[in-house]
Design brief:
four-stranded antiparallel β-sheet; single chain; Thiol Ester Dehydrase, Chain A
Length: 132
């Protein structure tokens, strides 16, 4: 297998818990279904009615808040970075989302949906990574 060939591999929630500091109710990635180390990753988030934000957003017509969709993308990006550098060492060993450019929500996300979170590394600069 050459270095550029695609790695078809999954990362289950047990491994995700070792890569991210997030826990219920803010762990927003259920599984990684595909990645190429240092390049891109696809994860899924299963959206269920039991999530706490649906009690108030909106009670008669539940919709996943856009900021949580962005957070799910940020967590997928964090997993891609962590796969390259290793598991969390302590609770201070975390990444931060510092900027979001041109986010658009093309449709609502409701209970029963499954989000496919596709992230790719666009550029690395010092201790930051820009994802698309």
């Amino acid at each position: 297998m050459t270095e550029k060939q695609k790695i078809l591999d999954t990362v289950e929630v047990e491994k995700i818990l070792k890569l991210l500091p997030h826990r219920y109710p803010f762990l927003l990635v259920d599984r990684v279904i595909d990645y190429q180390l240092g390049e891109h990753l696809t994860a899924i988030k299963n959206v269920t009615f039991n999530e706490p934000h649906f009690t108030g957003h909106f009670p008669s017509h539940p919709v996943m808040p856009g900021v949580l969709i962005i957070e799910a993308m940020a967590q997928a990006s964090g997993i891609l970075s962590r796969l390259a550098i290793g598991e969390l060492q302590d609770e201070d060993d975390i990444f931060y989302l510092v900027k979001v450019d041109k986010a658009k929500f093309m449709q609502t996300v409701v209970p029963g949906d499954q989000l496919h979170l596709h992230v790719s590394i666009k550029r690395k600069m010092r201790n930051m990574v820009k994802y698309v």
